[in-house]
Structures are given as C-alpha cells and as structure tokens.
Specification:
Four copies of one chain form a homotetramer. By secondary structure, the first copy, chain A, is of the alpha/beta class. Chain A contains 14 helices and eleven strands.
Chain lengths: 348, 348, 348, 348
C-alpha cells in the first residue's frame, strides 16, 4: 500500500490518452502525430523548444548521462547513490566508461561547498584520471528530501563555473514542483539544468519518463544510435508520447503530485504520533523514513506490502511512500491500525 | 499503410487487458498477479514451465544473446543481418564482447551445410578467437521468408552437435505458426530452440515482446542484473504482462497473424498482376519485396506512407508489410490504384 | 622456424637502443627524452609532425579505431578479418560500440568498386544503423597480398568522397615499403591514410607498434583517457620509444624487411618446385600459403614448428612466414628436406 | 629523482635476463621456454602451482577483476582509490559492468569492521543491485601504509565468510615482504588472497607485472579471450617472462625492495629534521607524504622532478618516492639541500 509509488495504477487521464492514440496507423519510432504534439506541448510547458525522448527510469538517467559528457568523464553524485544503488552500473556502462565520483552531504543533498572542494582537488589533464564533466542531482533525494531553488542555484553556479554540465534525475519532478510552488521552467533550465529526466511513471504514467535536453550546445548527433543501441528506441512510440502529454496537460501531473504529497504529510503526522516513532529525515515530498517500535511494526507485517523494512547505516527503519492513488481515508485507517487500535496488513 | 507492422494500432483484446490490469496497487518489477498469471499461461502455451521476460524488439534479442553465451563468444547469423542491420551494435555490446559471425544462404535463410562448414573451420581453443557459442536464427527472415520445420530441424542438429545454443528471433512468431499450421511447442523447444524472443509488438501489442528461456541448463543468476543494467526491468510490469497474456489467450495472436498473412497474400497476388511487377522473394508471411515499374510506383508516392522504397544489392524495389489491422478492402483499393485505375497515396 | 614473424628474436639495433635507454631516471608515461626524440624522428621519417603512441598489435588497431570515429559508427573491412579473426571483439568494444561491416574482394583485398557499392546502399541518418565512418585496410592482407599504391589511391578516393576516415593496419608496413620501393610518406598520409598502425614488433622489435595520427582534424582530447582505460599507457615508456626509434633510424626497418621478403621469395620458389605443390596466393611479402602433397608435409611434422597447417575455405594447406632472422641457408636446407632429400622438422 | 618508482631504470639482473632470452625463435603468445620456466619458478616461489600472466599496472588489476567475479558484481575498495583514482574506469569496464563500492578506513586501510558492516547492509538478490563479489586490497595503500599480516588475516576472514574473493593489488609486493620479513606464501594465498597482481615494474622491471591466480575454483576458461580482447596477450611473451623470472630468482626483488625501503626511511628521517616539516602518514615502505614549509620547498622547485606537489583533502603537501636505484648519498645530498644548506633541483 505504501511500499512505492511504482505500485500505483495508471491515472485515468493517461489511460484515456492511450486509448485516444489507439486509432489506425502511425509512423513508427517517432515522427508520429502524438509525438509531434508532445514536442509542442513540452516546449510550451518548459517555455523553450525541446524534444523529449521517452525512456524508463534507470534507462532515462543512463541515456542522459551517456549522451551528455565525453567518454571517460567523471560524473559527480551524492554517495547515497552508492548506498542505495539501484542502477547496477548502467550509468558507468552506457556512456562507454564514465567514472562516478561520490560526494557526501547532509540530508542526502550535495551542497555547493562540498562540490567546490571536490572539484578543486580533482585531477585534470591527466590521462590516468577521468576529467570532471557532469553534476548529477537527484531532485528528490534517496532520503525524500528536496533541493530548494536556492540550493539548486548555488550548486549550479559551482558546477557551471567549473565547466560541468548539470543533469537532474527528476523522477519525482512534479512532486517537488508543487511542494515549492515553482514553475517547470524555474525548476529546470532557469535553475541551471542542462538535461532533465522528467519522471512520469511514478506520477500516474505507465512507462513514461522523458529525457529533456535544454542545453543547445550539446550535439544530439549520436543520440539516435545511443537510443537504439540501448533498447530505448520505441517502435510504437505514440503510446509513450501520449502518456507524457496527458500528464503535463491541464495540470494533471501537478494534481497527482499534490495528492501524493498531501497524503504523505498526513501519514507522517499520523506515524509521528505513535509512541516511540522517530522520523529519520524531514518529510518534504512523498517518502517517509521512520523508526517504529516493534509493537507498531507488528501491526502491519501481514501478507500485504504496506511499507518496506530497511536496515542501512541509519539502523533498522521503515520506508513509506505514498502515490497519486493514496487516499486520506486509507492513511487514517493505516495509522489507526499501526497505533494498535485495529488490525491491518492482510488487507494492504 | 503497408509500410510496417509496427505502424498498426494495438488490438482490442490487448487494450482490454491493459484496462483490466489498471486497478489499485501491484508489486513493482514483477511478481505481481498479472505477471504470475502470465507465467502460468506461457507455461501452458509452450507446454513446459517458463518465465517470460518482457523486453522490446532489439532489447529482447540483445538481452537473450547477452544472457545465453559466455563472454567473448561467437554468435552465428545470416549476413542479411549485416546488410539490413538495425541493431546498432547492441548484440555485440550487451553480452560484453560477443563477435557476430555472418553466414550466407539463399532466400536469406542459413542452411545446415553452410553452418556446418563454417563451424568446421572455426578456430577453437585459441585466445585470439571468440569460440562458437550461439546460432541466432531470424524465424521470419529479412526477406520475409520463413524456416520450415524441416529446415529448423536440420540446422538445429548441426548447432547442437557443435555445442551451440540456438536463439530464435521470433518477432513474427505467430505469423510463421499459422503459415505452417504448427504448434508453439513444435516451433520452439521441440524444434531445438533454447531461447526464443516471442514477438507480440508487431502482432497487436503495444510494447510487449518476451524472452523465453527453454534450456534449463542455462543459469539465470545474472539475468536480473543484466535486465536492470540494460534498462529492461520494468517498474510497472503488470501492463506488459497483461499484453503478452492477452495475445496468447484464446488464439488472439493466431487470429491476428492469420489476418496479417491473408492480406499479404492478397496484396502480393494483386501487385503481381501489375504489368512489369516482379516479386523478389516468395511471399510466405506478411512481407512483400517487389520490383514495380515507375508508372505503378508513381501511383502511391503521395504524402502517405504506403510502402518503403529501398535500394540494396537486389536493386531498387518496394517493401510492403501488412499488419493485423490490414483489410481485404484496403488491399483491393490499393491494388486498383497502383494498377493505375484510381489514385491513392494521399489517403494512405 | 617459418611459423610466424612473431617468433623471431629482437634485432641487435633494437637491443642496443633499449640498453642505451637504461640509464638513471626518466619521466614516466611519456615526455621522457627517448619519447621526445622519437617524436622528432617519426616526424622526420613521415615528413610531417606526428606523435606516435606505442601500443601492441591488437591493442594498436583497437586504440586507433576507438579513437578515430564517433561511437556507434560502422567500420568497413575485408571479410577475411572475419574468417581469420584474431581480435576477439576488441575493435568493436574499445570504441564503445562500433559495428564491423565486412566486404568481399579477391586476393583478400577490398577493391574500390566493392567499397563504393557498399557505401551507396549503406543506411545513413537512421538511428537503427551505425553510420559509415571508417575504412580499415590491412596493408598486407591475411593472404599475404599487398595493396599497390594505385589500389590504395583508388580506394582512398572512394572512402574520402564518402566522408570515411582511412585506418591502415600496417603490422608489416616496412615489408610493403621495400617491396614497392615506396616512401613512408607515399605509403601513408600522401596515400590517403588518416591513422596508421606502424608495425615494429614483427620486424625486429620487442613490443613496439605505434599508432600514428596524420589527420589533424581528429581531436586527440580523449586519447589519454582511452589509452589508460585500455591499459596502453606505459609507465616506463622510454623503452618502447627507444625500440621504435631504433627501427626507423638508419633504414634498420627496411633492412630487416628486405631480408624477410627475400627469404620468403626464395622459400616460395623452392616450395613451388616440389611435385604437387600449389601456391594459393601470390607471394608478395613474407607469407606463403601453399598446398603440399602429404609426402612433402610428412617431412616437417616433427616436434619443431616449421609451418602452420591450416584448414579453411581454401582447403587444407600450409602457411609459411619468414622473419628478419631467416636466412637463405635455412631456407635451402628446409626446401631440400621438404623435397624429401633430407629429413628436417625435429631440428626446426 | 624522488617523483616515482616508475621513473627508475631497469635493474641489471632483468636486463641480463632479457638479453639471455634474445636468441633465435620462440613460440609466440606464451608456451615458450622462458614462459614455461617462469611457471616453474613462480610455482616454487609461491609454493603452489601457478601460471603467472604478464600484464602491466592498471591492466593487471583490470584483468584480475574482470576475470574473477561474475558480471554485474560489486567490488569493495578503499575510497582512496576514488580520490586518487588513476584507472580511468578500467576496473568497471573490463569486467563488463562491475560496480565499485568504496569504503573508508584510517591510514587508507580498510579495516575488518568497516567491511563487515558494509557487507551486512549490502543488498543481495535484487536485480537492481550488483551483489558483493570481490574485496580488492591495495597492499601498499595510496598513503604508503601497508596491511600487516594480522590486518590481512582479519579482513580476509570477513571477506571469505561473506563469499567474497580477495584480490590484492601488489604493485609493491616485495617492498611489503621485506618490511615484514614475511614469506611470499604468507603474504599471498596463506594470507587469504585469491588473486594477486604481483608488481615487478616499479621494482626493477621494464614492463612486467603478473596476475597470479591462487584460487583453483576460479575457471580460467575465458581468460585467454579476456586477455586478447583487452590487448594483454603478448606476441613475444618470452621477454616479459624473463623479467619476472629474473626478479624472483636469487632474491633480486627482495634486494631491490630493501634498498628502496631503506633509502625511503633515510629520506623520511632527513626530511623530518627540517623545521616545520610534518609527515602525513607513517612511512612504512617507500612513499613519504610530507608537509614542508615554503622555505624548504623553494629549494627543490627547479626544472628537475624531485618530488610531487599535491593538494588533496590533506591539504598541500609533497610526495616523495624512492626506488631501487635510489642511494643513501643522493638522499643525503637532497636532504642537505632541502634544509637550505645547498641548492638542488636543477640537477634532479
């Protein structure tokens, strides 16, 4: 139930868009009507001409990082990416030999000073070392915390002053957007982002993240081959384009994100009331990392999948994630049960 | 209109299955109900326990070939794969260093003797050479021709006697199935196939090909990492499983394939009647390669996309492909127009 | 004895140069005195400023091909590279995803027309296909035949007119040079070569081939990283530089090559006299491919390694290779024995 | 002068061995007499049957790590490997997709507890994560510190109890050996090492490190292809074998290492006497990391290369490295000069 935003079903607007795209023939591999519409819509949404490329999750990030830097370059990241690593080496492999450089930072955020001093001592011009080339930010970090616009701006300045491209893993882009009341433009290229992985799958899509390239100095010449080589060129692309389009149209993405964030806040508040509970990180979007006493945990260890028990350097704790189909009612029922007032779990 | 089976829309049965899967939460990355159902259904369809892995087109083949052999192995293929190559090196790269060995053969089919003599002179046990490891067959070849069961059997024997695994690119598996009145079992593991890429996308799916591993001696230990690393681990997998399930259920795949093949036969017969037309290969499934005089070609060069003009070692010619949504009526209208009796093209 | 030019020992001039370099300290990884001297010497030898990069055999070719083209490009080669392949996929892997396109051609030489028609039908601008980018020539082919200057010129024109870079595998560069009485310049950049792998190991060196980049439009920015990543950055580089320098100095390479070629010609003449012997290819440099009757072959099948018995699409035959330390006397003794007049083999 | 042990020339014993190997013909790519002799000698030296594979520096480590684990595995390392990284991604790339996991630890040594807790929280059995597979130790760390036998033993136990292979980067193996008065056996397989990169280049060789596989459960089947694919199969291998053999014969390696260590101790003692000097790490072998006041540093900043100025998270400091051709006299002259009593630098 609160195990991941990946477990949620597709939102009605996206399903309707898929249905609407399902008529007759359409050019394969892009250049179909739905994809051309998508280009126009994204260009409007981000107030600059862009051509989003559909690709899923890990693939979107790997593709962006493979495309952006020269081969044999260093990609700077927060070390949480190491701990919780879920990419199985894709971001090193797809570029044909990148090197990840891991940075520390509180609340799983890279701060500008840490980046600055790492770059200051980075070896340059030596064949033995991969030169710094990209800063890769996870907008909503592995701790569920978010970069504020101010933080983005200061880190972006360090990156650009050092000649780095800035890549943003925006798997939960819309969640951050509504949390800050920010515009898509401000959160992306005006905020110094060169390449964005716009996340739609977790926010109501079926399989629909999109790589958006804002920096026009980047040559896109190899991009087609890179996509095909890595299995990210979709024959029936119209169905992916339709999903992305449906989400950015008519604030559907924002609406979904708001529901997600609100239920997370409600859930966090409820769990905090449980005696002995302790939040590990501030709850800024839709992820809650919480230590719970055994008595509470015992209440939701049935056959369902209400939350994920984890054990890392923060000790044993639970991760809850709400999604666009989470409801206040479900949250309340869950909290009541977890507090020991009623049994849940089997019905998760 | 007849440009590719990739341009066709998704069949109603698949759309209904996607809709039906779109309820509530489901475990991410597999192990959801729809995926477990799929395992059972495929195991029934192929009369042996299997666990199909969803992956699209190029990705399915690359994944199968990355999984099967040891690293640094040779993969034997027909050289048409070279001419018409559409994989951009994925099948060399995903395995981490395979070598493609290209074979000749009439009608774009590898024959058993050619394979035998290639293997006889293949270097073995030398570090400088990649040892023979896999035979990769494209069931419906790039010329639209098909391997008969007899041909499969004789080539399979050569492969297995030489210690090769047999991989089948079955992008048009169902089309071959109905053309020969064969069973799924006979066309796959009983026919000596170790790994099948079962094609569903071209036959009415949205994005739904599946890697099916029949040979139980193959260790699947690395498969999860391989999928993740290559962007083929799907978070909302239920939607892909539902597609594959819908197609093998209640002979939907066969029905779609039959419609496809029959309209191709009708189209081939019609085009053959055009004065000066000449078929380049026998039309066995749903692809037609035909030389057409300029007068006929002029009739469908409007803004639509009725067929593909090609120019390879067979000289300039047209490729027509029918799909599961092609109709006898559309074929007849097209042939009439191409014969000069009425204008088409703009309406393609 | 005649099994390969790789079995021969290092020539005295090279050994003396290694000894001379073995004094005190020298900068590691290049920029040492011997390496700077080498740059000047090679620049003089090739009459243009160049910076040769030491790398061995397969590594030299793989490095050159990794460096030259964009990723995901096609490299055009003669298909003999396929038959006799000894690179185990390095030339696909090091560039991070190149595609080899194999061409036919008599006497194992690519001819200009074959290349022209292959390029004419090569798909361009399609993401599914790797665009043509490099022509890779093996100056002395796998059949021991050589490209004449005229042949080089005509093939080079086709390549350059089609935007291809031209790479030359010059493992036996000096042998061709003396065979044609050509200049290093004429055989390389004036002959249209963009990147040369200058072979020294087979011609008297210890481990000393060199990648020479003539085309100044090629960015060498990634080259250092590429070398390190692939284990081709040598800490004590002075010893490799000294070898290459010793060979191009004072016509040592040419002297060695002449001795090699002359003993091959003598051996070929001698073997041809044996009743039933038949040369498979013209003997142009130092490799002899010859069918020999069993009675002759029986004369050198002792524990030594006089020649290599092979069995490929040319049927069973022997390959003889002379080297810079082969002598007329040794040839005569061998031929006499092979003719049945005296026993050899055990003493090979 | 004290810039690296890579700048030193080759020791006389190795040069004589190369000369001695330079007679007549020898089988190429191994199986020559010198290589077979080497196998016997190494087997004696390590008191167990082994077959050392020559490979240089980065290449040796990359080859060992490519060979040992399954693809997509995690390799555990000290994070200093990240800071000072000199491999440009080779150890990720050669295995075809490994993931480096970086560990902390004082004096640049991994300790057993750190490893234990990292492994305890390592994700296993998830496709999204690369499973732990190898512990890679740098025997002489990037801080010049060494693992004691006790430390090796305790860390080895943790690794093996968790199913990890243990790889040792032994670029300065002999230096550690003589420092501890340990046997080759005790420092390698009896100490729990599965694969050793035995370093000879820095200790008097020309290009001669060797991969030594002790664990017989490791299949060596792919090793030949792996070597060829990565440019580590040497045509004239006898010259590399001769180098390795000369070093382990008659305690040459130990003699060289002792001279190296002793001059380092002398240099460290001398530099410590300089007012304001401060050693950053204990000097255990032949590397000295020292903060020096500007007045002292000014004494050796001439055109020579006496030491390396560095600036990392330890602040600005100098790195001195002695080599087997360093002398007590040279050390004394240098220290005197650095202390301001005489000028050096130009004569470095």
């Amino acid at each position: 139930m609160f195990v991941s935003d990946n477990v949620s079903c597709v939102c009605p607007e996206v399903m309707r868009a898929i249905d609407a795209a399902n008529i007759g023939d359409a050019v394969a591999y892009g250049d179909d009507e739905a994809s051309n519409d998508l280009d126009r819509a994204f260009s409007g949404y981000f107030e600059t001409p862009v051509t989003p490329l559909p690709a899923g999750c890990t693939a979107a990030n790997a593709l962006a990082l493979a495309f952006a830097p020269p081969r044999f370059a260093s990609i700077y990241r927060h070390q949480a990416a190491d701990i919780e690593t879920t990419e199985c080496g894709a971001c090193e492999a797809w570029p044909g030999g990148s090197k990840l450089v891991l940075l520390g930072g509180e609340q799983y955020r890279i701060d500008a000073d840490t980046l600055w001093s790492a770059l200051a001592r980075a070896p340059r011009g030596r064949p033995q070392s991969a030169a710094p080339a990209v800063l890769s930010l996870t907008l909503v970090t592995e701790a569920g915390t978010v970069y504020s616009l101010d933080q983005l701006t200061s880190i972006w300045r360090v990156a650009h002053n050092n000649g780095l491209l800035v890549h943003m893993d925006g798997a939960r882009f819309s969640n951050a957007l509504v949390a800050f009341g920010c515009t898509p433009t401000g959160m992306s290229w005006r905020g110094g982002i060169d390449i964005l992985c716009y996340g739609a799958t977790k926010n109501g899509g079926m399989r629909a993240d999109g790589v958006v390239i804002f920096n026009r100095d980047l040559s896109t010449q190899q991009l087609g081959s890179l996509r095909q080589r890595n299995g990210q060129l979709y024959s029936k692309r119209r169905y992916l384009s339709a999903q992305l389009h449906a989400l950015i149209h008519d604030v559907v993405a924002e609406k979904n994100a708001r529901q997600t964030n609100e239920t997370a806040a409600r859930l966090a508040a409820g769990l905090s009331q449980i005696k002995g509970a302790r939040l590990l990180f501030s709850v800024e979007i839709n992820e809650i990392f919480v230590f719970l006493p055994e008595s509470a945990a015992a209440n939701f260890t049935g056959p369902g999948y209400a939350a994920t028990l984890r054990n890392d350097r923060n000790g044993p704790h639970y991760r809850f994630v709400t999604a666009r189909n989470s409801t206040a009612t479900a949250v309340d029922i869950f909290v009541t049960a977890a507090s020991g007032k009623a049994q849940i779990g089997g019905a998760a």
